[in-house]
Amino acid sequence: MLKLSRRLQKIADYVTAGSRVADIGSDHAMLPVYLLQIDKCPTAIAGELNLGPYEAAKKQGAAAGMTARLTVRQGDGLNVLQPGEADTVTIAGMGGSLMSDILEAGHAAGKLEGVVELVLQPNVGEEVVREWLLKHNWYLAAESILEEDGKIYEVMHAIRVSDAKARNSELYDGSFLKVKLAADKLFGVLKQMGPYLLREPQPVLFKKWRHELNKLERICDQLGGSDLAESASKREQFQAEMNVIEEVLQCLPMDKP
Ligand code: SAM
């Protein structure tokens, strides 16, 4: 039995038992092989763009004796899928923009037809993924944040439900945050920092955003050394963003580290 990292385990936990899973950008295919080994999924597809990881996925499936239940396909994003072939799509370990591009292209090609669940773990750019989910009426049912080997990861679980729009608009209503910000700014904050993560904040959330604030501060310092008008306006924009994040962190109900 494979032992997953905490990050991959969290993704596996979100997958609904009994669903046919397609793991896109599967690399070593650890996730689908594990899901088959514990019999959480009857069948799985591992999709990979690049030859090396595609070969690694095939090897992993064979070593685990799963070739009858695991199909490994080489191709770009959701192109490896036929509509109706999977109930759950997992995509993990890549940037949020690439992930959204894969989802957008797959959606346009009808590859998400029949898919009722997405489990997504962007390494960066979580906001772009939440925006994609909102735009396409996927309800964000849960999200998690965790730290492993010095890196902080967010995992999102989205489902297809008929009242996604209404549920999302309730979820993304930021009035629970006791800060003096306009509704559209609050909406932006929730997309950026996570609507569930802000409702039940954990120390790791503070750690992530303190780190982001430090990065923004360093950028502002560098921009401060430039005489260009463009740099000054960028610096102002970052400063305003930092103020909002700072204000939100201050208002969160928890023991700060
Ligand atoms: N999903 C695994 C995980 O989370 O541990 C592997 C993540 S690995 C860092 C990202 C993988 O995505 C790489 O193996 C890469 O080849 C693959 N990849 C990148 N772009 C892709 C695309 N457009 N379609 C399919 N796979 C892609």
Protein described:
The chain is an alpha/beta fold. It has 2 domains: 6-171, Rossmann fold (3-Layer(aba) Sandwich); 174-251, Helix Hairpins (Orthogonal Bundle). Helix content is 47%, strand content 18%. The protein contains 10 helices and 7 strands. The chain has a 7-stranded mixed β-sheet with strand order 3-2-1-4-5-7-6, with helices on both faces. Helix 2 links the parallel strand 1 (21-24) and strand 2 (44-48). Helix 1 (6-14) packs across helix 2, helix 4 (96-108) runs parallel beside helix 5 (126-135) and helix 9 packs antiparallel against helix 10. The longest helix is centred in the last third of the chain and has 23 residues, at 229-251. The chain is globular. The model has no long low-confidence stretch (mean pLDDT 96). S-adenosylmethionine (SAM) binds at residues 24-27, 47-50, 53, 76-77, 92-94, 102.
> What's the N-to-C terminus distance?
37 Å
**CATH architectural label of the largest domain:** 3-Layer(aba) Sandwich
- Tertiary shape: globular
CATH superfamily of the largest domain: Vaccinia Virus protein VP39
| Helix percentage | 40-55%
CATH topology of the largest domain: Rossmann fold
Task: For the structure shown, list the relevant keywords.
2 domains; 257 residues; alpha/beta; 18% strand; Helix Hairpins; Rossmann fold; seven-stranded mixed beta sheet; globular; binds S-adenosylmethionine
What is this structure's SSE topology?
Blueprint: H1 6-14, E1 21-24, H2 30-37, E2 44-48, H3 51-63, E3 70-74, E4 88-94, H4 96-108, E5 117-122, H5 126-135, E6 139-148, E7 151-159, H6 164-171, H7 183-193, H8 195-199, H9 203-224, H10 229-251
The protein binds S-adenosylmethionine.
